[in-house]
Amino acid sequence: MAILEEKLTAQGKAEQISTFESGNEMAAMAAAQINYHIMGYFPITPSTEVAQFLDQMKTRGEHDIKLIPADGEHGSAGICYGAAATGARVFNATSANGLLYMIEQLPVQSGTRFPMVMNLVTRAVSGPLDIRGDHSDLYYALNTGWVILTAKTPQAVYDMNIMALKIAEHSKVRLPVIVAYDGFFTSHQKRRVEFFKDRNIVQQFVGECPTDYNFARDPKKPVTIGAHMSGDDFINNHFQQSEAIYNAGEVFREVAAEYAKISGREYPVLDLYKMEDAEVALFLLNSAAESAKDVADQLREKGIKAGVISPNIIRPFPADKIREALKNVKALLVGERADSYGANGPNLTHEVKSALQDDRENQTIVLSRVFGLGGKDFYASDAQSFFDMAIDAMEKGYAEKPFDYYGHIPGNPEKILKPVILPQYGDVFKSGLIDVKMDEETNKLKVKIPPLRALTSKPKRIASGHGACPGCGIFAGLELFFKGIEGDIVTLFQTGCAYVTTTSYPNTSHKQTMMHNLFQNGAATLSGTVEAFLELKRRGEIEVSDDATFVMITGDGGMDIGMGSAIGTALRGHKLIMLEYDNEGYMNTGSQMSYSTPIGHMTSTSGVGKKQRGKAFHHKDTAQIMAATNIPYVFTGSESFPQDLIKKGAKAQWYAQNVGTVYGKILITCPLNWKSDDRYGTTIVEAAVNSCFFPLYEVEQGITTITYNPEEKNKRISLSEWLKYMGKTKHLLKDENKPLLEEFEAEVEKRWQRLIAKHENPML
Description:
The structure is a single chain. 36% of the residues lie in helices and 18% in strands. It is globular, with a radius of gyration of 29 Å. The strands form seven sheets. It has an eight-stranded mixed beta sheet, with helices on both faces. The chain is built from 25 helices and 29 strands. Keywords: 4Fe-4S, Electron transport, Iron, Iron-sulfur, Metal-binding, Oxidoreductase, Pyruvate, Transport. Residues 495-652 form the Thiamine pyrophosphate enzyme TPP-binding domain. Belongs to the pyruvate:ferredoxin/flavodoxin oxidoreductase family.
């Protein structure tokens, strides 16, 4: 698709630079050259890199886009919609469950006709969780009212991102646009690309940002956006929206022709490869179509008239072009990386069939195959199999099996995995050495624990063999907390490093029942589990021990995107524990900034450079937020103070079994992303405690108690003493960043003094 820079110059095209880049890099490049006003985002693999690249470019002063990290994809969609309503140019990128989490916002934006561009880096929608690429997320977007372009290569990602904005803002369209490309296949694989050397060429092409619309931007011209409508008005609104999206098909052709003049690259509505006289053909989206073209060439050499069809736009669906392309095709196989369960074929299969219905002379036999789910590779041999199926149908005059899955493998009962260890439960996890009693005078629990050596005989809750990085503090912290829990547990792990590294089908490191749900809904899910257990037990339908404890493990951003669910669960008072491991970022997706990241700290989305000094705002105090819900017990802990953490584990179990919801926060190390030495994990978290950045305390029945005071122990250290251990914070120790360090120190001191005041005044 790309052509030589010398040839472009000779043809009088705009000057371009030839290089090798990935789809995500080219999406970021296009956004930076356009210089959008706003990007509201939340990291999710494999689209995360787009925001990371833009953050890196911003540290170098290569664009002025305001990058706003949201608390979740739903929030990012709200940020984008609010910005678009002002007439600002808005950009976003997401994938899979991130798209589904924001999906209720998408029809709001298209229905009120505010343009923007969003890159959908396609990925399997869980469950079960699979982070690799298919089109199951894309198919959910088909009915949102957004224009949808599809990009097969990194070059197409760049080009279509530029065209997308011009289409979105066109007076005949005024709709948001999705640019969809394959996760990992296109997003991460580097290929030869060309981009405009002068960003002014791009900005001249997209033109000035339109202002002739009812935006929320001028107090002298008040507007009401999204007013409630009756049925009569509502159908008129949707008719206009429908007309606009069909207009987008015409506008796409106009914009593509205009873009070809400055780039030398053409994007027809349908990419037709050797379809002029084709008798058998494959209809494939995005990267799979590229794999099939070589096979079509090989079949041509054998005298078989084979071709490949791949659309560059699927909303609006180009029915007229498809009818024209298939006029003489005898058999077509539509391959799709998603299914429409129960419909005897996925979405595009039915849309192709529907298009052909309007041509009564068409006799094309249409086969449908679901393939490549969860990122399963599509090789030339697979394209050959697809062609073989189409050829067989052509020769027989009918499709023996019109719809089927391709590439699935029947299970073999003889190869079922056997448990490596016998199930451990009940008394196995009871040491009998921990004593927890309520002191009626103080209304606080008294906890007695034995020497740590005595608890080593208690089995670990998580077996060896998990995939955590060397030096990871998650499991050391969790296991220490679990030493304080007696008896059976049921855990729910939200998505994050702790979940990903302990479960990889068909294996698990969990010795007792564990379930998973997504970041945003773990607490609510476990609350349903708790209540179901209790109700089933009340009815006599199950037998479980009275001391079973339900624990939700969260981290890696789970208390950002999942904050609403956690607060709702706390307010309802379910008998469970929410335990957060705080590694100060979204480590499972590549060390992006979280709301728990302290100010000035470097992450992959809060870079350090001449234009930026790490995260721009202070960290979230989750423990205090949860304490404000008036749950019976809140605590903080650290593996560097093991007796303190074990006691708090015992208290947490008692309150969760007898009173209601408990929340705990453990600071744990992440050497990989903190850029610290594996050996210093305990040293670093101990320094965090002794610097008063991460104080150890509990809020029991509303009363705050500091359980370790470094000042009283004469062990308080400066914040710098903690920061020096980590590569992500060493820039804060430089003279030019002294004001930022002083601001950080002032905030830590303010929070510490406030905590002391609460400790000394029980009514606070």
